Amino acid sequence: MSGTATNGNLKLRSQKWFDRNEREGMTRRAYLRAEGFTEKYFDGKPVIGICNSWSDLTTCNAHLRTVAEAVKRGVWTAGGFPLEFPTISLGEVLMQPTAMLYRNLMAMDVEECLRAYPLDGVVLLCGCDKTTPAQLMGAISVDLPAIMVPGGPMLSSVWRGRHLGSGTDTRKLFAEKRAGRLTEEEWCEVESCLSRSAGHCMVMGTASTMTSLVEALGMTLTGCANIPAADSRRLAIAEESGRRAVEMVREDLRPSKILTRDALENAIRVDMAIGGSTNAIIHLVAFAGRLGLKLPLETFDAFSSTTPFITNVQPSGKHLMEDLYYAGGLPAVMEEIRSLLHTGALTATGKTMGENIAGAQCFNRDVIRPLHEPLGAEGGTVVLKGNLAPCGAVIKQSAASPHLLHHQGRAVVFENNADLWARIDDPGLDVDESCVLVLKNGGPKGAPGMPEWGDLPLPAKLLKAGVSDMVRLSDARMSGTAFGTVVLHVAPESAVGGPLAAVRDGDRIELDVPGRQLELLVSDAELQRRLATWRPPVPHYTRGYGRIFLDHILQAHEGCDFDCLRPED
Fold first, then answer.
1. Taking a C-beta distance cutoff of 8 angstroms, is the pair 7, 248 a contact?
2. 45-156+197-357 architecture in CATH?
3. Residue 520: closest CA among 509, 531, 505, 532
4. Rounded to an integer, what distance in angstroms lies between the CA atom of residue 144 and that of residue 156?
5. pLDDT tens, per residue, the chain with 569 residues
6. Running DSSP on this structure, what letter comes out for residue 350?
């Protein structure tokens, strides 16, 4: 073989690395021969990278080495040459202060590996919530043929005959423990049975939301997102995805051909129909930014107001992801809202979205409701504006208390997360159930990294009195597994001088979800007077990745990507 090999009429990118007539090409081939590969593997076979986010430190992704082996089988049988490579892995449970701080670092890792290595296409293995958007962001920027294979949700948990959802029920039971209604022995029993297998959270948290939205975007095989991690069908679809990756190279089917505005709008529709995590908005805006598309928050709100919420899964419902899969999974949800979708959008299958979901059936109407009998007339997430959030804020109305969706209350302010935990259980805290709990310095720069601090704990004395929810607001995020009347992503954040920085104890705050308003009830003159005396906090980092993060991070309504990673206008 000499020169650049071709596959049909398509030149393979990988052959630039392996040209026998060049010294470097011979050396590269020789080094791969050291792994036992023979001459036939370099003779025009598409090289498919398997981008693996496996880690022992990321339980959600702990089974991805096995999934990678299934992908390899598919690549081999389709005539490709699979080469697995690792990237950093982001596990929200163990990483401090938050995996979100490192989403962009992982996206850079994926992007640079795809650019640097002799790959013609890639299969992206994801799971835990930030690994999915990070991998897709990197793949968008390089634009090689790519397909995603999520690891799937862990098996459902059962404790004393009660099904438990990771994250969601953990929060409920911890509140019971703080209120003195759950014993230490019971708490230990919950710990022993909460996580029954590898895989991501088995509720509609950020991980399940993002893998579902990747399928809605057309970047997986149909039905891939919701298969439980421990189910053998997870490995079967991984093998099929490996075969499909080879075909995508031969078809030159790249993310830029799939991830159109229609695809993004399909994902927003699905997000609203499934009661998805509020974090999805940040990640979808980041995808759009990488694609050079504008995706303002107003788009999400417009779609929310016209998309019924139909998926009865925790934290906005009662079932778990395993139940959703058995009920028909995401294809059944999308078939139910077909009339609201761009069914002509191209997908990684090579077919349109309409062709993919045609004939999908629902097998449990308590899990997936008919479009004409929804759980809610509007989508799960609402966008708020007002003098407290001029660039926007979000609330998951499907997981909020209806009686609090229009509420006015006195602010109880915490300057940061440490202040919150130091005082929240103080019996002398001046708070009642009508108050609005406010957390500052939880945003991209203020925390840093915008951790999942937004679902502020209720004061212990109110829990003991039977209070189950209060209005809470911050510039932080919350886990997709969380619930309650929680306003998040207030932008601009307090650490850059947003109006949230000016809120004081005793101020009146009005939340009006039907009216899409969030207002600090002080005069404009008083608000400006307070902001004029505001001083920025001391930076958290002066070197390394942290310094890069602080220098380049965008605000929540801009997707929290780095400004230097978006394409130039």
1. no
2. 3-Layer(aba) Sandwich (3.40)
3. 509
4. 36
5. 333 444 556 789 999 998 878 889 999 999 999 999 998 888 789 999 999 999 999 999 999 999 999 999 999 999 999 999 999 999 999 999 999 999 999 999 999 999 999 999 999 999 999 999 999 999 999 999 999 999 999 999 999 999 999 889 999 999 999 999 999 999 999 999 999 999 999 999 999 999 999 999 999 999 999 999 999 999 999 999 999 999 999 999 999 999 999 999 999 999 999 999 999 999 999 999 999 999 999 999 999 999 999 999 999 999 999 999 999 999 999 999 999 999 999 999 999 999 999 999 999 999 999 999 999 999 999 999 999 999 999 999 999 999 999 999 999 999 999 999 999 999 999 999 999 999 999 999 999 999 999 999 999 999 999 999 999 999 999 999 999 999 999 999 999 999 999 999 999 999 999 999 999 999 999 999 999 999 999 999 999 999 999 999 999 999 999 999 999 86
6. S
Give me the helices (H) in 34-93, please: 64-77
User: For residues 316 and 326, is the Cβ–Cβ distance under 8 A?
Assistant: no
**CATH number for the domain whose boundaries are 384-538:** 3.50.30.80
For the beta carbon of residue 246, count every other beta carbon within 10 angstroms: 27
Question: In whole angstroms, what is the distance from residue 118 CA to residue 80 CA?
Answer: 13
- Per DSSP, the three-state class of 113 is helix
Q: Report helix, strand or coil for 116.
A: helix
What distance in Å separates the CA atoms of residue 281 and residue 365, rounded to the nearest whole number? 27
369: its two tokens:
């409701």
The answer to whether 96 and 450 have CB atoms below 8 angstroms apart is: no
Q: How many CB atoms lie within 10 A of CB 511?
A: 25
pTM value is 0.96
**420 contacts 440 by C-beta, under 8 angstroms:** no
CA angle 154–156–159, rounded 5-degree value: 130
Q: How far apart (Å, rounded) are the C-alpha atoms in residues 500 and 434? A: 20
Query: What six digits make up the tokens of 247?
Result: 């075909």
Burial group, residue 162, by CB count within 10 angstroms (0-12, 13-18, 19+): exposed
Q: Quick count: other Cβ atoms within 10 Å of Cβ 460?
A: 17
Alpha carbon distance 367, 400 (integer Å)? 19
Of 81, 73, 74, 89, nearest in space to 39 by CA: 81
Buried b (16+ CB within 10 A) or exposed e, 18-56: bbeeeeebeebbeebeeeeeeeebbebbbbbbbbbbbbe
CA–CA gap between residue 559 and residue 549 (Å, rounded): 14
Give the start-to-end residue ranges of the domains of the chain: 45-156+197-357, 157-193, 384-538
Q: Residue 497, Cα to own-chain centre: how many angstroms? A: 27
Strand 406-414 to strand 508-512: parallel, antiparallel, or no bridges (unpaired)? antiparallel
Written as six digits, the tokens of 541 are 């980092």
